Amino acid sequence: MREIKKIDVWSLAKIEAIIGVILGLIIGILTFILPPLPGQEQTLKSLGVYAIFLAPIIYAIIGFVSGVVIAFLYNIVAKWVGGIKIKLEDR
């Protein structure tokens, strides 16, 4: 068994930002192509194509910030109780 004792804050933040871009792009495209729910026509109509561009940016920012926070907190907690244990196998 191996133990993850520390996570590089910026490394996790970059990964989560990229995942945020991918999820934001998917959500932006779905927002653009799916019909709105009753009562939301005007709100979603005003977003239109902008949802495809805004959602990835917003999700990337949220992902980056959450990555920083999660890695920072993980590093503190791992000092107290130990890190996540994983089993690596040789190929």
Structure summary, number of beta strands? 2
Distance between the termini: 16 Å
- Sheet of most strands: 2 strands, antiparallel
Query: What series of H and E elements makes up the topology?
Result: EHHHE
What is the share of helical residues? Answer: over 70%
Determine the number of helices (DSSP H or I, runs of at least 4 residues): 3
**Which parts are unreliable, with pLDDT below 50 for 5 consecutive residues or more?**
none
Question: How many discrete structural domains?
Answer: 1
**Overall spatial form:** elongated
Mean of residue pLDDT?
89
Beta-strand percentage range: 5-15%
Structural class: mainly alpha
Largest sheet: spatial strand order: 1-2
Q: What's the Cα radius of gyration?
A: 19 Å
Structure explained in plain terms:
The protein contains three helices and two strands. By secondary structure, it is mostly helical. It has one domain. A two-stranded antiparallel sheet has the order 1-2. Helix 1 packs antiparallel against helix 3. The longest helix has 32 residues, at 50-81. It starts with a strand and ends in a 5-residue tail after the last strand.
